[in-house]
């Protein structure tokens, strides 16, 4: 990569390139410090996001240069908001990032004769495997894989009809009145079909399921006759 990827497009399309490989920030777990009463010691308690550590946000800086014929107006419109970000030197990972300095970008480009500038992104701490690994079919009583170093929450699809239960990592989700299929998004903690929520048909036993590093057991019963992973969402620290 000579440029960077953001929101489905490469910066080269706008005539912008990264001048040198950027530093790849590694996020730290979010924690709370508590002093022990009667002692000088301080204990740090890592925050949990329900199936894994909660990670601090990081700032990703990219030093860039624009060609003389760069599409500055298109660039300024593109570098707004947030989306998937892939940078040189870490092409096997994607972070969700939001442009931090979008307001001054166009002024900087016009003012500097060498057409160099820096783009900064506020990013989630997790680095997701990129490109997104392909989905795959599951076997009841088998393993739901996770090849990342951190926990993950994939998007699943169960098929069947009637009432059934899917159990992931010991946590069960019972779905009543299943028709054809239902999608289970462990990240947003939603069950839906064709964009319509099925949460009124879902009964949960315990916390929402999550998948630890290395994977976990998965099984189903009743009216659920099959299951697959649509988006694995494996991620690393």
Report the sheet with the most strands, covering strand number, pairing sense and barrel closure.
Answer: 9 strands, antiparallel
Overall radius of gyration: 22 Å
CATH architecture of the largest domain: Beta Barrel
Order of helices and strands: EEEEEEHEEHEEEEEEEEEEE
Mean pLDDT: 89
What distance lies between the first and last C-alpha atoms, to the nearest angstrom? 22 Å
- CATH fold-level name of the largest domain: Elongation Factor Tu (Ef-tu), domain 3
Shape: elongated
Number of domains: 2
Proportion of β residues?
over 45%
Strand count: 19
Q: What low-confidence regions span 5 or more consecutive residues with pLDDT below 50?
A: none
Content-based structural category: mainly beta
Number of helices: 2
What does this structure look like?
The protein is mainly β and 237 residues long. It folds into 2 domains: 5-129, Elongation Factor Tu (Ef-tu), domain 3, CATH 2.40.30.200; 136-236, Jelly Rolls. The chain contains 2 helices and 19 strands. It has helices spanning 72-78, 105-111, and strands at 5-6, 9-10, 16-18, 31-35, 42-46, 58-66, 82-86, 93-99, 116-123, 127-129, 136-137, 142-144, 155-168, 171-185, 190-193, 196-197, 202-205, 216-231, 235-236. The strands form 3 sheets. Strands 1, 2, 3, 6, 7, 8, 9, 10 and 19 form a 9-stranded antiparallel sheet that branches. Strands 11, 12, 13, 14, 15, 16, 17 and 18 form an 8-stranded antiparallel sheet that branches. The model has no long low-confidence stretch (mean pLDDT 89).
């Amino acid at each position: 990569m000579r440029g960077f990827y953001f929101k489905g497009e490469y910066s080269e399309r706008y005539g912008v390139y990264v001048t040198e490989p950027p530093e790849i920030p590694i996020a730290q777990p979010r924690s709370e410090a508590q002093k022990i009463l009667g002692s000088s010691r301080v204990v740090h308690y890592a925050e949990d996001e329900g199936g894994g550590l909660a990670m601090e946000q990081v700032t990703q800086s990219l030093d860039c240069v624009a060609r003389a014929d760069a599409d500055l107006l298109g660039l300024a419109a593109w570098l707004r908001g947030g989306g998937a970000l892939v940078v040189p030197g870490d092409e096997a990972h994607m972070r969700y990032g939001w442009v931090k300095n979008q307001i001054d970008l166009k002024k900087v480009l016009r003012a500097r004769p060498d057409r160099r500038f820096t783009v900064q992104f506020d990013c989630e701490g997790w680095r997701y495997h990129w490109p997104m690994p392909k989905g795959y079919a599951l076997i009841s009583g088998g393993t739901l894989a996770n090849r990342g170093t951190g926990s993950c929450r994939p998007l699943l699809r169960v098929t069947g009809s009637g009432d059934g239960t899917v159990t992931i990592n010991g946590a069960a989700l019972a779905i009543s009145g299943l028709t054809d299929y239902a999608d289970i998004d462990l990240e947003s903690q939603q069950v839906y079909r064709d964009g319509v929520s099925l949460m009124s048909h879902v009964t949960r036993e315990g916390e929402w399921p999550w998948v630890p590093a290395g994977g976990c057991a998965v099984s189903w019963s009743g009216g659920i006759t099959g299951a697959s992973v649509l988006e694995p969402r494996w991620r690393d620290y």
